[in-house]
Specification:
Elements (H helix, E strand, L loop, with lengths): L1 H31 L4 H13 L1 H12 L3 H26 L10 H19 L2 E2 L1 H25 L2 H8 L10 H33 L3 H26 L3 H26 L2 E2 L2 H22 L7 H24 L1
Antiparallel strand pairs: 1-2
Helix pairs in contact: 1-2, 1-8, 1-9, 2-6, 2-7, 2-10, 3-4, 3-8, 3-10, 4-9, 4-10, 4-11, 4-12, 5-10, 5-11, 6-10, 8-9, 9-10, 9-12
Length: 321
């Protein structure tokens, strides 16, 4: 048991470090290429922060454990919303800029509901995966065009987002860091998956459950760390934008690309528990994400406690069964 645990923790650490480096290198390279800050904030930041989830999900599907991919995305989004929002509220209570992220939040709710519906039909194939990626691309392009014209609150949030990963690196240094961090993600994902699968066998839980707990927490570390850092600087709207954007990428791009590589079966029993839990967390988070309610320390603490209780219940119930 000790060897899988060491591998799992080592994989988490490598994923966190490599994920952070990859985001900074991607943003620095995009700036060197002259891309607008708005476009970088809408696409590059959210995509780069979701790379740990992508690498882990694709590797798990290719290794014949697609349940980890589904659990990883489900658990990562629950962690993003519960732990991310909770950490922000505990560190510095805030109220989001009202309605600034309403389009992205609406898209996230629809994507989550769609995932739950599709899950009841047995899974996602290559065609479904391609449609998911296409839907995300259309949403991002429409959002970029709209925000470039209107220069509204959402445009300001997305334009400010790359500042969270500011790094004045040359193009060559950015490419080197990109290559090294990508290799780190691949190796870290391998260690994480091997350790997680071994622990799942010892605990007697399914791949999906281990995916939504320890694997999801490991791949969500870059987003949680970035969110906490932004909250300490009182840049809550930027942090929220990153959380929502990353969660949307997880559902549509990560699951979509994984399904294009290998079909992703979804257990209806998993959807009835964790899938519906994700939908509930997403819907309940809307008032805080759209600025209709304040996130205070008590609310933040309850979110964190609720997340811990949910993961403990999910793993414990399955293990006992």
């Amino acid at each position: 048991m000790s060897e899988p645990l060491v591998g799992l923790l080592g994989g988490m650490a490598l994923l966190a470090l490599s994920g952070e480096a990859l985001v900074r290198a991607a943003v620095a390279l995009a700036r060197r290429l002259g891309l607008p800050s708005l476009l970088i904030g809408i696409t590059v930041v959210a995509a780069a922060t979701s790379m740990p989830e992508l690498v882990v999900s694709v590797q798990s599907a290719l290794a014949g454990t697609p349940g980890i991919a589904v659990g990883n995305v489900t658990g990562s989004n629950i962690a993003n919303l519960a732990l991310g929002l909770g950490a922000m509220g505990v560190l510095v209570p805030f109220t989001a800029r009202r309605g600034a992220l309403r389009r992205d939040v609406a898209a996230l709710v629809l994507a989550t509901a769609g995932f739950v519906v599709v899950g009841f039909f047995g899974g996602i194939g290559p065609i479904g995966g391609a449609l998911m990626v296409t839907a995300l691309a259309a949403h991002l392009w429409n959002g970029y065009q709209r925000e470039r014209r209107e220069r509204d609150a959402a445009a300001r949030i997305h334009a400010e987002s790359p500042e969270e990963f500011g790094a004045d690196w040359s193009a060559w240094l950015s490419l080197v860091v990109l290559a090294a961090s990508t290799a780190g993600l691949i190796v870290g994902a391998r260690f994480l998956l091997d350790g997680a699968v071994a622990i799942a066998r010892v605990w007697g839980v399914s791949d999906a459950v281990i995916g939504l707990s320890v694997v999801a927490l490991g791949t969500s570390l870059p987003e949680i760390a970035t969110t906490a850092a932004a909250a300490r600087r009182r840049e809550h709207d930027v942090a929220l934008g990153n959380l929502v954007g990353s969660s949307l990428f997880n559902l549509l791009a990560i699951l979509g690309i994984t399904a294009m590589v290998a079909p992703v079966p979804v257990d209806a029993a998993f959807i009835r528990t964790s899938g519906l839990a994700l939908l509930a967390v997403t819907v309940l988070s809307v008032p805080w994400l759209t600025g209709r309610q304040r996130v205070g320390r008590r609310t933040g603490a309850l979110m964190i406690v609720g997340y811990v209780a949910y993961v403990s219940l999910a793993t414990g119930v399955v293990a006992l069964g």
